[in-house]
Structure prediction request, 610 residues.
Amino acid sequence: MDRKVKVLLVARYYIIEPLGLLHLVGLATSLGCEVDVELVPNNDFTGLYRRVEEWKPEYVGFQIWTGWHLQTFAACDRVRSMGPQVIIGGPHVTYFTEECAKHADYVVRGDGFRNFRRILQGEIGCGVHFDTEQLAEKFPLPNRSIVYDKYPVLRDSPIRSMITSVGCPFTCSYCYAPEWNKMYGGFHHTQRSVDDIVREGVEIRDRWGAKMIYLQDDIFGFDYKVWLPEFARRWKEEVGIPFHCQIRLELTRYRAGDERLDLFVEAGCTGITLAIESGDAFLREHVLHREMTDELILDGCDKIRSRGMTLRTEQILAVPFSSLETDLSTLDLNNRIGPEMAWTSILAPYGGTEMGDVAKAFGYYKGDNDDLEEEFFRRSVMRHSKTAKNAIEPVVREMVESNKAMERANRHSKSPLRRLEAREVAPLVMEVSIRDERDEFSRKHLRGPKPLCTIEFMDDEENDRYADQIVILQRLFMWFSLVPVAMDLAQKYVMLPREEWTWKKLGQVASEHFEAIGKGSDAARWVQELIRAFGCCSLDELPDVVRDNPYYFVFFPSSAEFAKHVVESGVVQESAEPGFQFDKIGHVARHWLFARSLYKVEESTKPIAS
Prediction:
């Protein structure tokens, strides 16, 4: 290139470094470009506009995902008006290409490394670009220095992120991976070389240091026969940093699963994150497409824990056909597993996924994704039903029984729910039948498929109540999962009137719960130990936050220190709207568990209640 082209890359600011962007920075710098990065905090693009005005880049590239798309589109439009050409990529672009094309000069759909290079080298013109060859140029080595120099909080984090492979063969209904695989003619697992990964790990260790590496692959160690043994040997010998990874429970099964987990431990893996999604078997199999039995889940988690690795589970609340009962069953399953952390989200019905299609087809969701937030923790945007699962489950079971000859490989493409359709027959009432695939004349003049069941939806008041209950359950799910027999406690608390969803009331309900399950004397001992740790003589002498609900703290590592941290941070405010006072403490609690239970990058003592 005759002169250095200026490229400014934009992503949302988050506590985890923007991994994909680091690789794009590496690619652009390898081409001789001048590169800068702008990470946008709290949807405030002021810093971006100022940087564009001062630096005058030729290109500004945006990563866009659903829920962050509207505010980013507005930023794209403004940046274009300032002179630079705008490049956009990311999940939202891949599935809503036409909409995105209105706000950019270049739209990169699907894998973007080769087309990003082509744009910067002037090989392709403005428009929509799709590389039909998946990861044709593999992974460029990431460049972290530009991000770390500008954002010292990310530089100083004890945890770094890396990725060793991309691709997932599974067909979860809420994920874009199945559609991605169709786009590229099937599942492709692209594995980086061990040389590349070791080189990156050594650079992280020597230049920035790290107590932990988080390997962000969807299915780390998929190739356990050739790639993983080499990685295990060389990572331990040449890098030596402990790591945390993500896998599927199916990959823990049989002898192959045992070998895979043993190699993880040999390499220095200290913990695993995996998704369960629901405690209800019907929802797992037919709504979420997570065909895992309770036995597989419990056995796989036990295999991980028995090897000394920590465990984080992930689950989704308020999916189509769920109810408070099924959401609580997810908590119950986590109680049986006993993970260090149970992470939860609230379903976002993303367009382009099967879950989004099902939510619309059955009347759960009538939006266009413009009503979604950038995070999936806020509040359900769907209308729900208390009785839908009871109505639809027998229908689906019968369909499965009558189609047992169906090849398993094709099962999800012929998912029972995708073969049904619902039509509104009265306000908040949907009638379900087999999808009518006849010609237009037949549909117009001949009787259609007979109704199989009816779904009755909640009215506005009931739906608001359920959505609020799920917010409370999600905010407290992590703590509930640490408490014995927590399903009873959670149910009692979320069933309270909204005005009673307070911090103090949670402490009262917890006290009653421990008495009810025969742990009243244990609870009294826990409180006394907390009192002594504060150097006090009675409960009344404790800070108000601890006095009102001492039981919250005793299940966390370094319980007294955690309580003091919460008091000092002021995250519990009784003046806040009932329920919403749990927003901030949930964030603080999550990071406390990250550092001391899951990743163990901070020293800690056992929870008082252990």
Notes: DSSP finds 25 helices and 17 strands in the chain. Confidence is low (pLDDT under 50) at residues 405-413. The two ends are 62 Å apart (CA to CA). The CA atoms of residues 2 and 436 lie 61 Å apart.
